[in-house]
Specification:
Layout lengths: L2 H17 L5 H11 L3 H13 L13 H12 L23 E5 L2 E4 H6 L1 E3 L6 E8 L2 E4 H5 L5 E3 L6 E3 L4 E4 L2 E4 H6 L15 E3 L2 E3 L8 E3 L6 E3 L2 E2 L6 E2 L1 H6 L2 E3 L6 E3 L1 E3 L5 E3 L18 E5 L2 E4 H9 L2 E2 L6 E2 L3 E2 L5 E2 L21 E3 L2 E2 H13 L11 H8 L4 H7 L5 H10 L7 H5 L5 H12 L8 H4 L1 H8 L5 H26 L4 H23 L9 H9 L3 H5 L2 H9 L22 H13 L5 H13 L3 H5 L6 E4 L2 E5 L4 E3 L2 H16 L26 H10 L3 H13 L4 H8 L3 H10 L7 H6 L10
Antiparallel strand pairs: 1-2, 3-4, 4-5, 6-7, 8-9, 10-11, 12-13, 14-15, 16-17, 18-19, 20-21, 22-23, 24-25, 26-27, 28-29, 29-30
Helix pairs in contact: 1-2, 1-3, 2-4, 10-11, 10-12, 18-19, 23-24, 24-26, 24-27, 24-28, 29-30
């Protein structure tokens, strides 16, 4: 420990032993060292104990965090008279698990109470958790940690950032640390190229050789290097006293109160009101500025947006961010405006937003992807090359870069996949934990051709089943595997092979049945019964304890066990078929449809999908699986191909679907180097997959009673069209179409008349 720290520690220990009589010097030294180990924390503790002799006994939480930690240590040691401060809101004692942190009027509050104590910030007007309270009022954390008065625009890269520690000034020119480190001048004392600490009359001096002026501190009286000065020619403070708390007169308004040092403005100190944040030219919000250009001053978000939106400069014809102005007020690039900045990527040579090492997002994302996919031999496997190329050519490199960030699940999965010595297959991924990140990665690999296509919802059932049976008794697990493999999964594979479709709902139905079987077998073991000895009375007792749908899910297993001779003559009654939902009124249905066609505030995909549901009664699962090529245009009319005959769409609905189709083609998560087919009309978050749950949630929020609205649309159509025509147009099963026709009160007598006038194209809306 240095002589400075030793002296300050002895002073604090002396104050503490004078206040607490039953505390020895050794105990006080240990507690002070544990509560405040640094020089500035010791200084804060010394000044608070000296100015407030009752700080340990008053129970007040208006104290620095160092004092609160010391009080907790003294209370745990059983010192007489020491009162532990309480939270101002909930009154809980600070015992370490509820530390008091956020200062408020009258003291401090604990962290749980601080999360609910949200107030408008006096600087940005945003309602947030109060971080500090100044003479100007409460301040949020974002405004407290950032200050526009400490920022400056680098003369080399044009980016604005905090002055302290990141910028140095010479002749009024600001240079950021990154740019300055590329061409550091030589120190006049040691000759090394280092960051400049100060520019002396003889030249630059590095931090190792530069020694600031040593003067007596106006607060503690010790002769130490001057850290800050309060105003021009005012008090000189050392670093410990400045960090412990600076109070004085503001250099701008002259008001007394807490001050904040500002090196960028001549080392003068300002109050919170005088250092308030300016407004951004782009968004108009008060925030920390990231750049000052001729076109205006921009916050960090708008700064990034301007640099990404590159365009052709009308002066030189090159592609650059247009940040300058010509004499006529037209936007031009920085070089043409005389701004010495270079936004050109060192990798691809294109101009735009640079992330790190003067590299754009696309080059950085490609480099990051190659690092993750490089195997132990230092090369990328041939099977992963299409996936790597797709990541490099992605339409949104910022999204790829965010996806591959270190610590993210995708980055960890790619590292594990590239480290595998064998060729990448679906079985390799099946051995990994089945998480959402793995499903997203697998679909991305399939979409780009790195893995072959498979019925993913079906194949994911086997790893899920093994995870479900982990820890189950051997006999129970063997019975469930046999039932699943030879009944549920066998039928599911046959259905997927013949129809070519196996949806998420089908896999969820199988999971529901297997969970019901597991509950039944667990209940049998808990009742000290066996499957062979299970009678109808015991099975009925189990059904009473289960909800109707959960109990009925085990019906197929009971039938399979009875046919296999594993149990006696028992059965679960077949559940009653669900009746058609009562439809909404026609006025309500047309009102919802009119709102979808005219309300521009609703999302485009919600309006387009909702119009199909309200107009034709299509289920959301069917709407989500529409592809862009099913929408065609002939002779000035738009058609939607659902069944054997295309539907003639009304102009308003056709316009919505055309706009959604153009949006679907332009929005891609990965580059379509190996597209699985035409783009989905409603693309989802997973590459190559349509939207499903998200679209359904949007429709439920936009259209009340979405299922009843679909019933109203189908009843309206069934009242005007015979069942065969309805089945052909909407691609419905003939039995389903007949049920809807009967529900609408129609019969087959109109079929021949409808067939006589059939021309191959039908319009369901006049």
């Amino acid at each position: 420990m240095t002589e400075k720290l030793t002296g300050r520690l002895e002073a604090v220990v002396g104050l503490l032993t004078d206040m607490v009589s039953d505390l020895t010097a050794e105990q006080a030294t240990e507690m002070v060292t544990q509560a405040a180990g640094g020089s500035h924390t010791l200084a804060a503790l010394q000044w608070h104990l000296r100015d407030r002799p009752d700080a340990l006994f008053s129970g007040s939480s208006e104290a620095p965090p160092t004092v609160l930690r010391l009080i907790g240590l003294l209370s745990n040691a059983g010192c007489d008279g020491v009162v532990v401060p309480r939270c101002v809101d909930c009154g809980q004692v600070d015992r370490g698990h509820r530390p008091l942190g956020t200062p408020v009027d009258g003291g401090r509050v604990c962290r749980p109470c601080a999360r609910h104590r949200m107030e408008p910030c006096t600087r940005c007007a945003r309602t947030a958790i109060v971080w500090r309270r100044t003479s100007g009022g409460p301040v949020c954390e974002r405004c407290w940690r950032t200050d526009p008065d400490t920022t400056a625009t680098c003369s080399l890269c044009g980016q604005r950032g905090p002055v302290g520690g990141h910028y140095d000034r010479r002749d009024g020119i600001s240079i950021c640390k990154r740019c300055y480190g590329q061409s550091n001048p030589r120190c006049i004392f040691c000759g090394d190229r280092r960051i400049v600490a100060a520019y002396l009359d003889a030249g630059p001096a590095c931090p190792r050789c530069h020694r600031p002026a040593v003067e007596p501190c106006d607060r503690c009286g010790e002769s130490r290097p001057v850290y800050t000065r309060l105003g021009e020619g005012g008090q000189s403070l050392c670093r410990d006293c400045a960090d412990a708390g600076v109070f004085g007169c503001c250099a701008e308004c002259g008001g007394a109160g807490p001050l904040f040092r500002r090196r960028a403005r001549g080392r003068r100190s300002f109050c919170a009101r005088c250092r308030s944040a300016p407004s951004c030219t782009g968004c108009g919000r008060q925030a920390t500025l990231a750049a000052d250009w001729p076109i205006g001053s921009f916050c960090r978000a708008c700064y990034t947006k301007v640099r990404r939106d590159v365009a052709t400069c009308p002066s030189c014809g090159d592609t650059h961010p247009l940040i300058g102005l010509d004499p006529t007020g037209q936007r031009i690039c920085g070089p043409c405006a005389g701004i010495d900045v270079d936004y050109r990527c060192t990798g691809c040579g294109k101009t735009g937003h640079l992330i790190a090492e003067r590299t754009c997002e696309r080059c950085l994302a490609a480099r990051r992807a190659r690092q993750l996919l490089t195997g132990p031999d230092g090369t990328v496997a041939d099977a992963l090359e299409p996936f790597l190329q797709a990541l490099a050519d992605a339409d949104s490199p910022d999204a790829v870069l965010q996806w591959l960030r270190p610590g993210k699940p995708a980055a960890e999965l790619l590292t594990r996949v590239s480290a595998q010595p064998e060729t990448l297959t679906h079985e390799t991924l099946d051995r990994l934990p089945q998480t959402l990140a793995l499903h997203r990665l697998r679909q991305s690999l399939v979409h780009t051709g790195a893995l072959p296509e498979r019925v993913d919802y079906l194949e994911r059932l086997v790893p899920w089943l093994e995870n479900l049976l982990a820890g189950q008794p051997a006999g129970r697990a063997h019975l469930m595997r046999t039932y699943a493999q030879w009944t549920l999964l066998r039928r599911a594979r046959y259905k997927a092979r013949t129809s070519g479709r196996f949806t998420y709902g089908s896999s969820d139905n199988i999971r529901t049945k297997l969970r019901a079987v597991l509950r039944l077998l667990t209940w049998i073991d808990a009742q000290d019964l066996t499957l062979e000895g299970l009678d109808q009375g015991a099975l009925d007792r189990w059904l009473v304890t289960q909800p109707r749908t959960r109990g009925a899910a085990a019906r197929q297993f009971v039938g399979w066990a009875r046919q296999a001779g594993l149990t006696g003559d028992i059965d679960i009654p077949k559940p009653r078929a669900q009746t058609t939902l009562e439809p909404i009124g026609e006025d309500d249905r047309w009102g919802h449809l009119r709102r979808l066609l005219t309300d521009e505030q609703l999302p485009l995909d919600t309006r387009a999908a909702g119009a199909l549901v309200l107009l034709y009664g299509l289920p959301v699962s069917r709407v989500s699986e529409l592809r862009a090529d099913q929408l065609t245009r002939r002779g000035g009319h738009s058609y939607l191909a659902l069944g054997a005959h295309p539907l003639l769409l009304p102009p308003a609905v056709a316009d919505l679907l055309d706009r959604q189709a153009r949006h679907a083609v332009s929005v891609t998560v990965l580059h379509r180097s190996n597209p699985a087919g035409p783009p989905w009309l409603f693309p989802g978050g997973l590459p190559g997959r349509p939207a499903r749950d998200v679209l359904y949630r949007k429709l439920r929020a936009a259209i009340p009673h979405i299922r009843r609205s679909r019933s109203a649309a189908l009843i309206n159509l069934a009242a005007d069209l015979p069942a065969p025509i309805l089945a052909d147009l909407l691609d419905l099963n003939i039995n389903t179409a007949v049920q809807w026709t009967r529900h609408a009160g129609r019969d087959w007598s109109h079929y021949l008349q409808a067939r006589t006038g059939t021309t191959g194209q039908h319009n369901l809306v006049s």
